[in-house]
Structures are given as structure tokens and as C-alpha cells.
From TrEMBL, chain A:
NCBIfam families (alphabetical): PorB_KorB
Required cofactor names: thiamine diphosphate; Mg(2+); [4Fe-4S] cluster
CDD domains on file: TPP_OGFOR
Organism: Tumebacillus lacus
Name of the protein in question: 2-oxoacid:ferredoxin oxidoreductase subunit beta
Record's keyword terms, sorted: Iron, Iron-sulfur, Magnesium, Metal-binding, Oxidoreductase, Thiamine pyrophosphate
Signal sequence segment: none
UniProt key word Iron-sulfur: yes
Residue stretches in coiled coil: none
UniProt domain Pyruvate ferredoxin oxidoreductase beta subunit C-terminal: residue ranges: 198-257
Protein origin, superkingdom: Bacteria
Residues annotated as domain Thiamine pyrophosphate enzyme TPP-binding: 48-194
Automatic annotation (TrEMBL), chain B:
Name of the featured protein: 2-oxoacid:acceptor oxidoreductase subunit alpha
Domain Pyruvate/ketoisovalerate oxidoreductase catalytic, chain residue ranges per copy: 15-177
Residue intervals of the Pyruvate:ferredoxin oxidoreductase core domain: 479-573
Pfam family, one: POR
Domain of life of the native organism: Bacteria
Domain Pyruvate flavodoxin/ferredoxin oxidoreductase pyrimidine binding: start-end pairs: 212-453
Record's keyword terms, sorted: Oxidoreductase
InterPro entries: 2-oxoacid/accept_OxRdtase_asu, PFOR_II, Pyruvate:ferred/Flavod_OxRd, Pyrv/ketoisovalerate_OxRed_cat, Pyrv_Fd/Flavodoxin_OxRdtase_N, Pyrv_flavodox_OxRed_cen, THDP-binding, Transketo_C/PFOR_II
Amino acid sequence: MATMADFRYDKATWCPGCGDFSVLAALQQVCVRMGLEPEDVVCVSGIGCSGKISQHFGSYGFHTLHGRSLPTAQGVKMANQDLTVIAAGGDGDGYGIGVGHFIHACRRNVDITYIVMDNHIYGLTTGQASPTSKKGHKTKTSPAGVGEEPLKPLELAIVSGASFVAQAFSGELKQMQNIIEAAMKHKGFSLVNVFSPCVTFNRVNTYEWFKEHIVNLDEEEGYDPTDKYNAMKRIAETESVCTGILYREERPAWHEYVLGATETGTVKQTLDITPADAAGLIDQFRR
Amino acid sequence: MTTNEFTWKVGGAQGEGIDSTGEILATVLTRMGYYIFAYRHFMSLVKGGHTNYKIRASTDREVKYHGDTLEMLVAFDQTTIDENEDELVEGAVIIHDAKFQASTKRGGAVHLCAVPLSQFAKDLGNSIIKNMVAAGASSYMLGIDPSNFYEQIEAQFGKKGAELVNLNKNAFDQGYNYVKEHYGNLQKPVPVASKPEKARLLMSGNECIGLGATLAGCRILAAYPITPATEILYWVLANLPKFGGKVLQAEDEIAACIMAIGANFAGVRSMTSTSGPGLSLMMEALGMSGISETPLVIVDVQRGGPSTGLPTKTEQSDLYEALYGSHGETPRIVIAPTSIEDCFYQMINAFNLAERYQVPVIVLSDLLMGMNKRSFPDLDLSRVTIDRGEVVTQAQLDEMEKGAFKRYALTESGISPRSFPGMKNGRYCALTNEHEETGLEIEDVPMREAQMKKRFRKLSTLERDVNEWGVDYSGPDGAETILVGFGSTEAQIAEAMEQLGGATNVGHLQLRCLMPFPKDAVRPHLEKAQRVVVVDNNYTGQLAGLLCKEIGFHDKMDVLHKYNGNPFTVSEIVSHVKG
């Protein structure tokens, strides 16, 4: 049985107080709680502060390119559906440069969990506006305040066909763990958007700010995460500043519906083709 | 063109069944024992425009190119005559639809034969069946016994019922009999072929790539539709799932290529297939494969560029991008199959090289080879081998201290054994950042230098081996003139060599591997030559540039360029050499 130590690797280099520490810890705790072995888990990350998570997580990892964690993670899962695959990155990575992949990953329903450490800012490049920066937020690239509407990842995920959509907060570790565990157990594509404050470059959306504004829908009486239209309504009413498992549905995952679906991972299929089968392939072309 | 050969072409607007008409004849001729090459000329639109399908057939030798001239043209419209009449030989026959008044600037040099193709089809109640009327008309004119076509009609439509079979036979007969009655004197019986003991293969380069990948153990293809590479996707989709393989149509070529990298990382031989615009989007991923040392196979079926360029025409202008594209520097392998069937063998080679050297491999095909078909006796399955390269075993990992596995170990060969997710104690994080031996991000100077050297050191054994298989030479030792090409131009250059004859002291080098470059095999020929004629299917002379960079002798280079979308003709090469 693996322990927390098995899911640690080297020391994380984030700024003291960074929300990403809690995300890493929650992920490690959930893996232990679920009885996973580190060799059966793959953590794929993009580029940015949050992208460093794969280096410090004790499972197999792939620290990929900016915005490309989702195609990589989907490729890993396509190759071996018996692995637990987590994609991780930030809001710039996932909702800026990688948003095209995000929408299609939602539709495709590959059985992976996507954790976005959303701090509403570009941290590693020292403080530019991100797709989720609030309107009016003054940053190095928006000296007069952001003029664009912020991207709404939760609604975007739901309308794009994501089968599990949740939001957590780094300041609420216990809820985050529960959400991540539910996401990892969910069959299909699961999004966990985590408010993970940047203590260095975002002085607006701080821990305090989130604590003050967050509406916890997990605790809202009668909230039904299978009710898509109510989920959209409540997310809009809270201006996306809510936490909880917001939407979920059961639907076949890619490895179940794909043409030629196999019971076990593609990696376990033999590469050898019998002489008779090989001859059969070639005979298609005999005239 | 020899006396044992003939050429035939059908043309019309797209959507008129031109391809199906050509396919019928290509299949019939192959079955009868003719060696054929079938060439499709088409445009980037669904209906209208001009498209044609040409067949060159030989009774006694394999045909690798569709030929410079034409003996029989079936024209569904006047545009077909206008676009193709210059190719016609003296005495050629044009069978045209009687629905239009045909004219040709070739005057009495060619024979115009009006046949009511559309009218017959209309009378039979099915306008598309004029392709079978045209096949019948062609059959008579070529002196081919109708039984050969009946056999094909049964094979093609038998499953759909006797009514459809009879309709097609009827259409065929009407065309056949009409020509026999009205133009019987123009019949030109083609040389007779003997039926082979074993039925021959009729395949395109794209089909060879799909088949080669499947037998090479590729089990995942992620791709985005693009002409002229989409047929690879089709074939693999129809066949790979039978062997536990998966195919995914990605949202773009960035995702397609990166999915293939992710799947290779997890231990499945995986590839992507594309053309120039897609290759450009994969440049970022190429570096990711390179620095993370994750194997990758990319097939680029080149088309006319730049940008959207000529999507349905051929060119070899992605060479520089394949060789040098992507920021920073990573080792890579670039292979150009030299014929349709070589596409099959080079896919086997590509997957083995990608895993043995843990690098991206780009297979450079092109539209000419990819979308056109030729018949040949067989493929040699004994050449199919699977070499997964250096992979650490679970037993080796079990013996190591916990966490001691070094995925990027600085080995003498530069190749570090891989582990796959699922292997206990084989954990590592594949990194696109520079890293130390276990895979942790670093920026320190000695380790950076050591890892760069390690990655480039990997190809040192290949740099030697490539002299064996990376280039073919034919011709006398010490030839005064050397013709050089890569990939598909092999066919026209080889035929040009025949026309030039041995006496002219000409040699032919055809490159199959462009990176690493087979320097030792190429250099002696260039040293001895007075003149190096580079047959470069692009504007800037990319192959000539590569030869100058790798070998030198820029003063000997004499580049024959072509970039109008059409493949080189043999006569263009011959007249350039003769000067």
C-alpha cells in the first residue's frame, strides 16, 4: 500500500503560500486514500508555475508544452486505459493557449481528470492578464484594467459536453480532496477548476477575497448536480465564484465507445500479426 | 514508351465518376496481367472543375510513372480535350460524349469519336452509369475482350443484386457496340498480357503507409483530415481496430501529434499523418519528442505550398521544414520512400528507428506517390521486423534502489533505456525543460552540455548505417554527370536514365534518408562527377542546398526545378541533361 512519501518527489519550488502546494497535497492524499500505486498513475502538466506539479508528484509524469497537457494526457490514456491519468495546469495554459484542446477533451470524454490551478493571472511570466482575470483587473499587460470579459471555464465545460464539472478552493483542503477524489473516480472527462491564489502577482483575488465571496454549492440544500440547467443558472448567479461538484452525468468514456474498444489497455495488445492475418491484409489489394 | 505499353485517360468535371471509371479499367488491366500506374489529376473542390485519371500499362515490366504521352482520351467535356490535347500522340483517339460538339487544335493528327455516353446512361435511367458506357467504348477501342469487364462488374456489384449487374453490363455493351459499329476501323488492339500466376497488388503510397504502419506494430493513429494524407486515416481506421489498435480524429494537427507522443510515452507505437500545413503545426511537438526522448513517427504527404498552396497537386517542398523545422535543436530522422511499395518498407523502418533512437522520425512522401496507384507482384513480409529498442525490464528495476532509475542516463551510446508507466520503480517525469539524468529540471551548465551531446550522440551508429540503405546508386563508377533526387522522383529519373542510355556516362543517386545524411555513400560520386543535376521538385532547390551543406561542390550543382504542381516528366529531365 503506497504512502504519502511514495507520491512525493523532490521539493516543490513554488512561492511560500502559493495555492498550488495545497493542490499537490490534496492530489497526493487522494491517491493514497484511493489505494493507488504511483506506477499506475500518470500526471501530465502544461507550462507555468502550476505545470511544475508533475515534477513533484511521485507518479510517472510528463511535463509537456504550454497548453498541451490535454492532448498528451489523452494520448497516454488512449494507450493505456488501465492507468489513472491526471492532467494539470493553470488558467493561462488551459484556457488561453490550450482552450481549443479543452473544448474537444470535454466532448470526447476520455477518462482523465483535469485539474486547473486557476489564479486569474500569469505567474511564471511575472504577472500578465489571463483569460480568467476579472474585468478591470490592472496587470502588466492591462495597465488600464482588463477590458475583455473573463472566460467562464465551468459553463464552457458544461456546454462543451464535459461529464463532470467541479470547482474547489486551495483554502478549503478537505472539500478539495473530496472533489478530486470524486473526479478521479468519475468515468469520463472530469474538470476540477481550483481557485489557487497567486500570492505574488495577484493582489486582487487573494485567499481572503475568495473566502469572502465563495458560495459552497456542495452545502446548498437541494442542489442537484445532475440538473444541467440549474447548474448553469447557479454558476451564473454566483458569477462563477462557487465551489462544489457542480455538474455530473454518466456517459460512455472514449475507451468504451471508440471503434475497436478493448477490455484492457492498447499497450497490452500484441504487436504480432499472424502470417494468415498479414496475408489477409495484403490480399485486400490483390486484383 | 515502348511497344509493349499503352496509355489511356478519362477526364471530366469532378463529381462525374471520373475516378470510378479509371478504377474499373485499372482493376481490369491489373487482373489481366498488365503492370500499371494510375495517376489522378484533381482539384480542391467537390463538383465541377476538371479532373482526370490516366493509366499507363505495360505487358512486361513494372510501371512507376504515368508517362509523358497519351494514346487514348475519353472526354466527358470539352475542357478535358483543351486541358489534355497537347499530351496526345499522332494518331491518338479521343472518345467524347456526343452531348457536346468537340473540337481540337490538333486537327487531323487525332481522331474524334463522338459516342452518346450521357444519352445511353439517361436512357438506362441512371446518369452516373455513363462511366460504364465509357468503359465499354474504351474496351472496344483497346481491343480488350468484354469478359474481362463482366468479371469486374460481377465482383463490384454482385452483392447488390442481379439487377444492378445487368444494368452495368447493358451500359457497357451499349458503349462497346456503338464504337464497334461507328468507329471500328480506329480500333487499336493493345499488346496482350499474360495473366500472372498469383494476383498482383494494386496499391497507392498512402495504402502502403497504412499497411506498413499496421504490420510495424503501430497501434494508435491520431490525425486531422488533410489532402493528400487523409486516405492513410481511412485505411488505418478500417483495419487497425481488428488488431486492438485505435484511431482518433483530433481537433487539429497540434493535438494529433501530441497525442501520438503521449501514447508513445505510455508504450504504444503511435503515429500521425498529415501534409505541409499540418506539419507546420507539429513543429512545436517535434521538439517535445526530441528533448523528452519520446519516439514519434510523422508521415508528411507533401503537396504544393506555401500555406494552403496547391492542396491537390504534388511538390517536394517540405524538405527544409522536415530537416530544420522547430525551434532549438534536436536530433531527428527524415526518410523519403523512393516508390509506392517502399512506403511500406520505410514505415517498418521508421517505427524501429524511432524506438531504437528515441527520436522523431519524419517520413516524407508526396501526393504523386501517396494518392496514385501502381501494380506490383507482392510485398516481402520477411522484411517486417519489430525492434522496440532499449527498454528497462521489471527485473532490472526491482534490483535498483527505490527511485534510482535514471531515464536520461548519460550513456556511452547516448541511448538511455526507457521505462513505461505501470512498471514499478521505473518512475520518471518526461520533461520538455532541460533536465538531469533522473528527469528533474536544471539550468546548470555542465549538465545542459552533457544532455545536448548525449541526445546528438544517439544517432552516431545510424550515421554510419545510413550509408547502406539511405541512398541508391545506379550507373557507371565515376560517372561524369550525376542525377540526384529524393523520394518519388526515382521513377522519372530512372526512366530518363534509360532514354539517355549508358553511353552518356550518367549516374543516378536517389536519396532515401535525408537526415542523417549518407555522406560517405554520396561523396565519392559527387567528387568524380563534372556535373550534378539535382531534380528538385520545388522552387528554391532544397535538395541541392542539402547536398551543398552536407557534401559541398556548389559549383557543380545544376538544379532542375519544378513547382507548378505537376510531377516531373521524363522528357523534362532528359532535355535538361542533354542541355
